[in-house]
Amino acid sequence: MFRLLKFLRPYRISIFLIIILTFTQAISEVFLPTLMADIVDIGIVNGDTGYILRVGAVMILVALIATISIITSNYLSAKVASSYSRDLRTKVFRRVASFSLAEFDRIGTASLITRTTNDITQMERITIMGLRLMLRAPMLLIGSIIMAITRDVKLSLFIVFIVPLLIVIVIIISKKSMPLFKSMQEKLDKINLIVREGLTGIRVIRAFNRISHENQRFNKANIDLKDTAIRVNKIMAITMPLMMLIMNMSIIIIVWFGSIRINTGEMLVGDLMAFIQYIIQILFSLIMVSMIFIMIPRASASANRVIEVLDITPSIVDKGIDKNIAAKEKKRGYLEFKNVSFKYEGAERAAIENISFTAEPGKITAIIGGTGSGKSTLIKLIPRLYDVTEGSILLNGVDIRHMSQKDLRSKMGIIPQKSMLFSGTIAENIRYGKEDATIEEITHAAEIAQAMEFISEMEDGIESKISQGGTNLSGGQKQRLAIARALVKKPEIYIFDDSFSALDYNTDAKLRRALRETTHKAAIIIVAQRVTTIRKADTIIVLDEGKIAGIGNHDSLIRNCEVYREIVSSQLSKEELA
Question: Which domain holds residue 173?
């Protein structure tokens, strides 16, 4: 947890001011019981009204100083803690954004969300508590002990017994609560996962009538979290009453022995009143420390989870970048796979194996194969969402591992299998491909993508609002907008990952014809399930169990590739084949 304190360095001036203000506040609070004792022992006993008024005025001034100090200190503490959590969230978010898909697969999206939100909130709470109480408590504790000893040395021996007792209680509670708090955060991860799956998959859940099953899953995880929280709260519930019991018993004992010493003339009434105040301050300081220690286990568990994210080194990094890439690039939009193999972490066998082919500008390269043949895996290797296990991928004659990820992906327009749209307008979503795209460029891209058909029918045209995830659009409309988003970028390589599956045959044909006319300077790679989509491709790569079963155009594959013939015959009639 202490490793994360480095994020507080930018606020060291504010922290220094908090320390000064906290010290001023502690001195003021320690000084007040002494002034009260003087009023009783000197002013009241001697009937000196003038002395009472003078010392009373000083008490008011000291109280005002303490009040101003604590208000300013609390304000700065809140500002520092919130800024600290903001910086930490930014750091975690940027680190997560640099992860490859392998890191996402390892940790899980739900857990990453919890770590970026709930765990960092726990860090913010412990920071603000630390700045407000952890600094104040030791100062008040030490000052009160010193002042208590000056009032009565013998009665101060009581502190020797009570302080260690409270410290032992705090340590025991911390040890018991630490594993439970860590378990709570992990169970919160599980609830987030179930909620996320339930919300994103609500259509499937309802279609298969599995609402009761999902309710049971959620209830089980929720009850599990509740049971752990109850166990933690039972420990916490004991803490404060136990501390208050010890404090009240201590006051009773002090009043008992103090009255005896007053009767014997060894102690003044004002000194006893001041001593009781100092004992209360000592015990209150220890209670404040105990509150901090109660929160530390949960914050520590959260901190470890945040550190785990920050300590992950992305498997795909910009390392060994060739600064003379521009000079080495042979031509624009030339992609080559050389004996590429890839194996997922923990998998028994390679997802794709010994893949070699080239995709050239002005030509369409299509990839087809059965389910699990490795089509989507192959596509993910091109923008380095994963890195190849063996072999190499060359773009314009340069190994993509020697290019920065930003430069590599700037040369590509990727249309994923599942179209992802963001809340905002249609224009904003298309402009996601090119930030400075003009209205004319956006409209032109939408026309090529066959999206203007439905956009023109919408009330606000390209300025029409899209809900989160594009839920107010059909699957085909979302796919066409995703295609327009890639087209407006005008990249060197277009990658269509089964992006035509939601389109009807007529729209599919129009779109492919428009693509040929407008993307002749770029290489086009199409992953498809339909033979009709890729039938006229210049090169068709047939995958089977991660290996190339055939490569060539439609006619040559019909003659020479058994796997391709089976795919074609399952989709086209004899008349269509002819």
Answer: 2-178+237-311
Q: How many domains does the chain have?
A: 2
Polymer length in residues for the chain: 578
Cα 60 to Cα 65, 113, 159, distances in angstroms: 9, 50, 29
Q: Identify the domain boundary among 268, 283, 311.
A: 311
Q: Using one digit for the tens of pLDDT, what is the confidence trace for 284-335?
A: 887 777 777 767 777 877 888 888 888 888 878 777 666 666 555 567 888 9
- Cβ burial of 418 (10 Å; 0-12, 13-18, 19+) is exposed
Provide the CA 501 distance to its chain's centre, in angstroms.
33
Rounded Cα gap, residues 549 and 542, in angstroms: 5
Sign of CA dihedral 422, 427, 430, 432: negative
Domain annotation covers residue 191: no
For the entire predicted model, the pTM comes to 0.69
Alpha-carbon distances, residue 261 vs 41, 159, 247 (angstroms): 15, 17, 21
**290/141 Cα distance (integer angstroms):** 13
Whether residue 212 lies inside any domain: the answer is no
Nearest partner of 542 among 530, 557, 522, 555, judged by Cα: 557
What DSSP string describes 239-291?
Answer: HHHHHHHHHHHHHHHHHHHHHHHHHTTSS-HHHHHHHHHHHHHHHHHHHHHHH
Kindly report, residue by residue over 522-557, the tens digit of the pLDDT.
889 998 887 887 888 889 999 998 899 999 998 899
